[in-house]
Amino acid sequence: MLRLIKQAFTWWNGQTISTMLYTRLFGQNIGQDVFGNKYYMSKTKAKKQRRWVIYNGYADSSKVPAKWHTWLHGVVDEIPSEQEGSDKKWMKSHLPNLTGSDSAYRPSGSLSKKIVNDEQKGNYESWSP
Known about the structure:
23% helix, three-stranded antiparallel beta sheet, single chain
């Protein structure tokens, strides 16, 4: 029941009911990336075909890898595949933006870091005039 309510009223937790219906009626599944995002293209042949993505989980555009981003925006017409050997050994794998999540980078000394070392506490003496 909760899932149905989320689908009806929230667009950021996956697809809404109207998007699901549109995708089933007019969409053709093209592929899936390593994050589980599914990519679709309109079935009808038009001058410029419509392309869209259904995110796996929370809808965040930074989850789309570069190969799929170029296809999604019509820069290339070739469908990306994970078997392509175009990745160089110096390239890092794609990571979505983790800002605001528990996995976000927090350098040592950051105020948002919850772990406080005992050696940091030991050197502190309060000032008294």
